[in-house]
Design a protein that fits this description.
The structure holds two protein chains of two kinds.
Chain A (H helix, E strand, L loop, with lengths): L1 H20 L3 H19 L4 H26 L7 H19 L5 H24 L7 H20 L10 E2 L7 H19 L2 H11 L1 H6 L4 H27 L1 E2 L6 H14 L4 H17 L7 H15 L16 H21 L1
Antiparallel strand pairs in A: 1-2
Helix pairs in contact in A: 2-7, 3-7, 3-10, 3-11, 3-12, 4-5, 4-6, 4-10, 5-10, 7-10, 8-10, 11-12
Chain B lengths: L3 E10 L2 E11 L4 E5 L6 H8 L7 E6 L2 E2 L5 H7 L1 E3 L12 H7 L9 H6 L4 H18 L15 H14 L4 E5 L7 H18 L2 E5 L3 H7 L2 E6 L2 E6 L1 H6 L1 H8 L1 H4 L1
Parallel strand pairs in B: 3-8, 3-9, 6-7, 7-8
Antiparallel strand pairs in B: 1-2, 1-4, 4-5, 9-10
Helix pairs in contact in B: 3-6, 7-8
Classes of the chains: A mainly alpha, B alpha/beta.
């Protein structure tokens, strides 16, 4: 009985690998996903609450994947992600509320989001500079300070509403847009990780001095990692602001960063598939547990503690699903397997 | 013109002189050993040459180009590569990635091309992957290409470290105690291996070593350091007969 189940499983796995190994798998999947999102948005056949949860899932995936670049792949400990998110949220909101004409909001929305991302990326560039000199706990303090600075600055500028916050945004964050930006962020960060710049990011985590001595320009790599990571945090911020239609500085304090940190470590460091699983699981579980009221915030952390005891590196820590490995890398793996097989055949 | 010319190099750690007035010249294709007791400043000299430390005074010139003040990756790109006394591989990464990272200075694509996987990206990745696999094949490491570096046995880790250093396409290779932890048999193999590397990759080699058998066997010239000062230079046979060297290694009374 057992062997037949096993062989069935292997067959299933093999056909799954053939399917995902196909060149057209991802484009087809993306087209289907986007079509689904557009249909949902147009005909409202999912109820609005469910749509909102899907929107939050998307935003959280963007935040988690981008923070994983710094905390997982580069091995630093940044707690400033909410700060970058705030920059993106405020820039995008100011543009849609004050700068863009009322009639063209839908058309100009992606540019507002993009501007938020670029603004956050510029700030990310500044935060990368202290990372040249400090690492680990010390860099964590720098990013914590950065997060607090952003919050206090926003609280003291009356033009953006001060502590009361900013409102008047239209509900421009729709499911198709969230799908688009989520797919883009996952794709771009995966591309970065599977390039020599991404390998540079990984080598900094492993041994920064050895990395520098192996011709890696560690400063350049750190700037790239911080700029890309904060760019997508800014994108997520803009989407968040236009989903909630209201923002204030307190939403982007250290607790928001902590949420993202939990999703990163829950899903597992240095793994894109892990980040997606972490973000989906955390967001959905929090919603499912909502009927428990106050006990939700007891049960959820308890589950995290148990996870960390039984899987200390998170669900997918340091592992990657084949689905997210570029076909080119799989091709080198295949080549290597073939060579190895030839070598063993020749030996025997 | 000499390949490397070090003159009046001095380095202090908070008052302690780790290296003082170090002068050294190496011609292309030489194989020179740097020896000395523990704490003599041998590794510090390597760290100064590769830019890990910035020399307090003095100059290091690679084919006339001043290296003092440059960062490690700039120096590596100019053609100096090294291995480490205690192996410093990227442990969690695959053997192949360890070597591909060392091609960082040679890639022609920009970060933007890498983010979108467009332009020169594909061709360049193919090129460096091919080169890395070829290099691994030369070092008989290609079968472990997808293994994590930390899972290799000790001897192969040492070999991978040398392969990784050679991937940066150096003219000068610095080996920091390559024989550490090896038995006499392995040391004889290592001697052959180092000679072979010099031939195959036509590199100049400087070797730090404790194992007298190794340095005496393959080095054409030796430099002896003690307490940061150069106490002797010359052919292996001359060094063996040098009273000062015996004193530094064995103590004054035994030597006399």
């Amino acid at each position: 009985m057992m062997p037949s189940i096993q062989s069935a499983y292997h067959k299933l796995l093999a056909s799954w690998h053939t399917l995902t190994g196909c060149k057209f798998f991802w484009p087809a999947f993306m087209a289907a996903g986007l079509a689904f999102c557009i249909a949902v948005n147009a005909y409202d056949f999912l109820d609005l609450y469910l749509q909102l949860i899907l929107i939050y899932v998307g935003i959280n995936i963007i935040l988690t994947v981008s923070l994983n670049l710094i905390n997982g792949y580069m091995g630093e400990f940044s707690v400033g992600h909410a700060g970058f998110m705030a920059v993106g949220a405020y820039i995008a909101s100011l543009l849609t509320v004050h700068a863009f004409p009322a009639g063209a909001q839908n058309f100009l929305f992606p540019f507002a989001i993009l501007a938020g991302g670029i603004g956050a990326a510029l700030v990310g560039f500044l935060v990368a500079i202290p990372s040249f000199k400090t690492r680990g706990d010390y860099l964590a303090i720098v990013t914590l300070a950065f997060c607090m600075i952003v919050k206090s600055v926003l609280e003291n500028i009356d033009a953006v509403g001060g502590p009361r916050g900013l409102l008047g945004m239209e509900k421009l964050t729709t499911l198709p847009w969230v799908f688009f930006w989520t797919a883009l962020s996952v794709w771009v960060i995966r591309n970065l990780v599977y390039s020599n710049f991404g390998r540079g990011v990984l080598s900094i985590r492993e041994d920064e001095i050895a990395s520098d001595l192996m011709s890696v320009n560690t400063r350049q790599v750190k700037i790239i990692a911080f700029v890309v990571s904060s760019f997508f945090a800014g994108i997520a911020g803009g989407l968040f602001a236009h989903a909630l239609q209201f923002i204030n500085p307190r939403m982007f304090d250290i607790l928001k960063s902590t949420d993202v940190l939990i999703m990163v470590y829950l899903g597992g460091i240095a793994s894109i598939s892990g980040s997606i699983i972490g973000a989906v699981l955390y967001t959905v579980l929090l919603e499912i547990l909502r009927p428990l009221g106050v006990w939700r915030m007891v049960l959820m952390p308890l589950m995290l503690v148990l996870l960390m005891i039984f899987r200390p590196r998170g669900i997918m820590g340091m592992k990657e699903a084949r689905l997210f490995t570029p076909l080119r890398d799989l091709a080198t793996e295949k080549l290597w397997r073939q060579k190895k097989k030839e070598a063993t055949d020749a030996a025997s | 013109m000499p390949l490397l010319e070090i003159s009046k190099l001095t380095h202090r750690f908070a008052g302690l002189r780790a290296v003082s007035d170090f002068n050294f010249v190496i011609e292309p294709h030489e194989l020179v050993g740097v020896i000395g007791p523990n704490g003599a400043g041998k590794t510090t000299v390597f760290n100064l040459m590769t830019g890990v430390y910035r020399a307090s005074t003095g100059s290091i010139k690679l084919e006339g180009q001043e290296l003092v003040g440059l960062t490690p990756h700039q120096i590596t790109r100019l053609g100096i590569a090294r291995t480490f006394q205690n192996i410093r591989l990227f442990k969690e990464l695959s053997v192949l990635d360890n070597v591909r990272i060392a091609h960082y200075g040679q890639i022609a694509y920009t970060p933007a091309e890498a983010l979108l996987h467009i332009g020169r990206f594909r061709a360049e990745e193919k090129r460096i992957t091919g080169q890395a696999l070829d290099l691994l094949a030369i070092f008989k490491l290609d079968e472990s290409a997808n293994e994590k570096a930390k899972n290799l046995p000790y001897g192969l880790q040492r070999r991978l470290e040398i392969a990784r250093a050679l991937a940066t396409e150096p003219r000068l290779l610095l080996l920091d105690e390559p024989a550490a932890g090896m038995n006499p048999n392995e040391i004889i193999q290592l001697m052959e291996f180092i000679r072979w590397i010099r031939q195959t990759f036509s590199v100049t080699i400087i070797l730090i070593e404790h194992q007298m058998r190794l340095v005496m066997g393959i080095c054409e010239r030796l430099v002896v350091l003690d307490f940061g000062a150069t106490i002797a230079t010359g052919l292996p046979a001359e060094i063996r007969a040098n009273a000062k060297v015996m004193e530094a290694y064995l103590g004054e009374e035994v030597a006399s």
